[in-house]
Amino acid sequence: MKKPFLPLALLFATLACSILQAPTLPTPFPTSTVLPSPTVAPPPPLRSLAEERGFWIGSAVSYEYLRADSIYGDLVAREFNLLTTENDLKFGPVHPEPDRYDFEGGDALVAFAQANGMAVRGHTLVWDSQNPDWLVGGNTTRDELIRLLREHIYTVVGRYRGQIAAWDVVNEAIDGDGNLHDTFWLRGIGPDYIPLAFQWAHEADPDAILFYNDQGAERMNAKSDGVYALVKRLRDGGIPIHGVGMQMHVDLYTAPPPGEVAANMARLGELGLEVHITEMDVRVGSEITPEKMHRQAVIYQDMLKVCLEANNCDTMVVWGATDRYSWLSERTSMQDAGVLFDIDYRPKPAVEALLERFELTE
Ligand code: 9MR
Fold it and tell me: Phi and psi (nearest 5°) for 273?
């Protein structure tokens, strides 16, 4: 049985908002070898088709870009009915000093989501990356670290109680062999840091659905076996975990076979767990060709199909909205073209492919 993702009232607000929202992006789109010609009418928003099917189509959003670019904000609000806080609620950004939290970005993202009838996924409470120097550089005892992590989770989750529907509580804790990663948290607290984090998040917001989130564990392999074993132990131990996030950072040649993703979702479903696709992008490399865009569209469509057909998957989040601001373009000088809209905010063939898949679904 699925837990309702949002209260009914918010769902109605979402629908009302999407009806009232007029697309504000510049149209018609300029010509390109890959993208629709200027005479083609812009496609309907993804969220409108998603909502008709009770589905959540999301984008990771950083306040840094939202604050600076209203066209980007319009794109996100028009196309998506969910946002994930890309960086603003990670430990370092939100808790930059021992006694100081910075909620500017998180508050702004939650307010933006509410104003636009979008749900929010909070990302992420416990990770080995983007931790502040004061935390990782300190000579902290195990007891102090436990106290500190509990206070952090209570403060961050508690602030958004009732406003953030789902949390990635623990991120990327399993290595490629399926064992626990040697992380700051494992060294400092031991394996108990995982169940403790879920327990504290649940105490801070009993209605939020709580996820373990990882990458490279979408198909059936040693890593996804390790994730399965971990979440099974948590479930068996009565720990409040409700789902697994499959990040789905893939490329044209290593995307997981849909059948394996479906099998993986099914076995997690047998444990009573939901699955969200949480961070999807499909890298195409530096050269962008129509063939690559087509292949990318097929991969997006395949993964949406798997999710729609599973009885425990109702959410697919893309890790960014436009290539202009995607994490892939932060890392390389090339855009790598991994998300759904290009650097000029124009929809790629993948958008059409997702719309088509929604239309084929009851
Ligand atoms: O998109 C995020 C990017 O802006 C940050 O610089 C980076 C820091 O590690 O994290 C990126 O997001 C990651 C996410 O939090 C966890 N899964 C992998 C994502 C891409 O690296």
Answer: -105, 140
What residue segments make up the domains of the chain, in order of their start? Answer: 8-360
Q: Which of 251, 327, 329 has most ligand 1 atoms within 8 Å of its beta carbon, as the pocket-test mutant?
A: 327
Q: Cα(328) to centroid of ligand 1, in Å?
A: 9
Distance 327 CA to ligand 1 centre (A): 7
Q: Measure CA of the first residue to CA of the last residue in the chain; give whole Å.
A: 19
Helices 193-204 & 222-236 angle (0-180, nearest 10):
60
| Residue 290: its H or E element | helix 290-309
pLDDT in tens, 326-336: 888 766 655 57
Helix (H) or strand (E) holding 255: none
> Which ranges constitute the DSSP H helices of 57-192?
63-68, 70-79, 91-94, 104-115, 133-136, 142-159, 184-189
Q: Which residues participate in catalysis according to the annotation?
A: 172, 279
Of these ranges, 4-8, 33-37, 99-103, the one predicted with the greatest mean pLDDT is: 99-103
Distance CA 357, CA 302 (A): 9
The per-residue pLDDT for range 148-203, each reduced to its tens digit, is 999 999 999 999 999 999 999 999 999 999 999 999 999 999 999 999 999 999 99
Residue pair 131/94 in contact by the 8 Å Cβ criterion: no
Specify whether domain 8-360 bears CATH 3.30.420.40: no
Residue 23: pLDDT band (50, 70, 90) is very low
